[in-house]
Design goal:
This protein is an alpha/beta fold and about 400 residues long. The protein has helices at about 15-25, 70-80, 95-105, 120-125, 135-145, 155-165, 210-220, 240-255, 270-275, 290-300, 310-315, 330-340, 345-360, 365-385, and strands at about 1-5, 30-40, 45-50, 55-60, 90-95, 110-115, 150-155, 170-175, 200-205, 225-230, 260-265, 280-285, 305, 320-325. The chain contains 14 helices and 14 strands. The strands form 2 sheets. The chain has an 8-stranded mixed β-sheet, sandwiched between helices. A 6-stranded parallel β-sheet has the order 11-10-9-12-13-14, sandwiched between helices. Helix 1 (about 15-25) packs across helix 14. It is globular.
Length: about 400
């Protein structure tokens, strides 16, 4: 099967998730090409990746308004597919990549699947006005939903969001993200810890809706534990970062500033060591459609305490691989953390159950196999003749 994966994200090549999907589909014998936009003009920048797929970065002039370059990006896709290689199925990634993919594929009669990763309407409702630039997305995402053949959701909560957009439930399929279980494993080096204080790890960008402020407030109920926040700008930029300053000020006012440590951005290859260094990983964003962090933590054998939203609610099994807390329940969060940090036997059981769950349900091979079945379903649907009109 010839598969075209289209995304506008990733200024220096495919995102890790998109690259892994392409590699896994290639390993299953499919002819895969990844298409991304690059600024400028001229011919495509083409590279054959050792993992077996091809990357084409198509020129489209930059614009202050992101959707403005979609027509040119789409036209470049059509041009590329007119020269000997046309995909059997196209899979759009992110909303702008999906708009370009649906437009180009529609003119060629190619079936289209779409993964949104996040939705403007959901961000606006769950994050509020802090959700950056979602206003223009909402109408365009609704239009995209009408143009595609199949929406690929990454959590059960996202299924509801997509159907509220008007996509029929029969045209929505859940395919969770995968985890690299060879990299994210309980065995290996871990980041050093000072003293015997238990460690709570929080992973994610520094923004008000990521929940680090709830974690800091919850520390008052936890006792003597260290909260390590990974994410945001590089360490050198933390001093000037507005959200980092707000969190430090909150920690001082809450009386836990000696328990909070921010380390900034961390390279992906060091993340397994950070997970393994923790006694528990806390995932408490207001909006989490994917649930990548809890899966990576669980693959490393670390229990997760998180808010019961989106991908977190799907991946963490309450009282089996960790604990789920109602969103915004800071007191419940602190109580759950305190109890789990004092329960060595419970953490031991959660660790082993977490690793088993990831290896049974969330490997990249399973993700690729599920996508393969969906693509085949689209092809069968397109080949199936339309029913003859009823006779008068």
């Amino acid at each position: 099967m010839r598969v075209g994966l289209v995304s506008s994200e990733g200024p220096a090549g495919p995102t890790r998730q998109l690259a892994r999907i392409a590699a896994e589909l290639s390993a299953r014998g499919h002819d895969v090409r990844v298409y991304e936009r690059r600024d400028g003009t001229g011919p495509p920048a083409v590279a054959n990746v050792p993992a077996g797929y091809r990357v084409e970065r198509l020129a489209a002039a930059p614009s202050a308004r992101a959707p403005a370059y979609v027509p040119e990006f789409s036209r470049r896709l059509v041009e590329s597919w007119a020269h000997g290689w046309t995909p059997d199925v196209v899979h759009g990634h992110f909303w702008i990549g999906g708009l370009a993919a649906a437009s180009a594929a529609g003119s060629n009669g190619i079936p289209v699947a779409q993964t949104f990763y996040s939705l403007g309407a959901a961000e606006l409702r769950q994050i509020g006005q802090g959700a950056d630039g979602v206003g223009q997305r909402i109408a365009l995402e609704r239009a995209l939903g009408r143009a595609i053949d199949l929406a690929v959701a990454q959590s059960e909560e996202e299924v509801g969001e997509l159907t509220r957009m008007g996509i029929p439930r029969a045209d929505v399929a859940v395919v969770p993200t995968g985890v690299d279980t060879e990299r994210f494993t309980p065995h290996g080096e871990s980041e050093q810890r000072e003293g015997r204080r238990p460690r709570i790890l929080s992973v994610g960008g520094l923004a008000p809706w990521h929940g680090q402020d709830d974690m800091i407030r919850a520390l008052r109920l936890v006792g003597d534990a260290e909260l390590v926040i990974v994410g945001g700008p590089p360490r050198a930029g933390l001093a000037a970062h507005a959200e980092a300053r707000r969190l430090r000020d909150l920690a001082r006012r809450t009386g836990v500033d000696g328990q909070v440590r921010m380390v900034g951005a961390v390279p992906n290859d060091r993340m397994p060591g950070w997970y393994r260094s923790a006694d528990v990983v806390a995932c408490v964003p207001r909006y989490s459609p994917v649930g990548q962090v809890p899966l990576e933590a669980m693959a490393c054998g670390v229990p997760v305490i998180g808010y019961a939203v989106g991908g977190i609610a799907d991946t963490v099994v309450d009282e089996v691989t960790g604990r789920l807390v109602p969103p915004g329940d800071v007191q419940g969060l602190g109580t759950a953390l305190r109890r789990l940090l004092r329960d060595d036997t419970g953490r031991f059981a959660f660790r082993h159950a977490a690793v088993d769950r990831v290896r049974c349900r969330y490997t990249w091979d399973r993700t690729a196999a599920a996508l393969e079945r969906l693509y085949e379903r689209l092809l069968v649907r397109r080949r199936r003749p339309s029913p003859a009109p009823a006779s008068a």
